[in-house]
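Saturday, quiet lab. Running sequence design on the structure tokens for the scaffold JK sent over.
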């Protein structure tokens, strides 16, 4: 089986599964070597926001765990195996849509919070600039007074 040829036909959910599988494998190897070796879990740590990728990959880990549990513990009442697999596939799609919607809501909230933070920082910078310009004028006036007194 040639895996490289099949990679082009994978859906986005398959790609997420592949990324998580690689990260889980890296974490497993890291556990054997006693090293924290997540491949993608700390991806954004380099630029200082590693907690974001940790949260994202944590959610993906939970998502994959749910998929595994659904495959390992199918409902006992299901008579037809094909029906159960189709039902699981529908649930997987619904779960992925829910995760996607939650991620979008989280991204909107983060954008609002960052906008508020930027506005507050801008206000502080504007006030400090105004303060400094007033102090510069006061300092010039004070220097002029000292020069004129002599």
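Result came back. Writing it out in full:
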């Amino acid at each position: 089986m040639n895996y490289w040829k099949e990679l082009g036909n994978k859906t986005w959910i398959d790609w997420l599964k592949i990324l998580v599988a690689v990260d889980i494998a890296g974490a497993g190897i890291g556990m054997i070597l006693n090293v924290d070796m997540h491949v993608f879990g700390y991806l954004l740590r380099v630029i200082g926001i590693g907690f974001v990728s940790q949260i994202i990959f944590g959610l993906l880990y939970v998502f994959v765990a749910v998929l595994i549990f659904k495959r390992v513990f199918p409902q006992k009442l299901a008579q037809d195996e094909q029906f159960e697999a189709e039902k699981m596939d529908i649930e997987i799609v619904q779960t992925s849509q829910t995760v996607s919607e939650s991620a979008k809501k989280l991204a909107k909230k983060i954008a609002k919070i960052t906008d508020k933070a930027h506005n507050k920082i801008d206000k502080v910078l504007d006030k400090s600039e105004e303060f400094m310009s007033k102090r510069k004028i006061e300092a010039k006036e004070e220097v002029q007074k000292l020069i004129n007194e002599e």
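Notes for JK: The first helix runs from residue 3 to 6. The chain has a mean pLDDT of 77. Ask whether to fix the surface positions before the next round.
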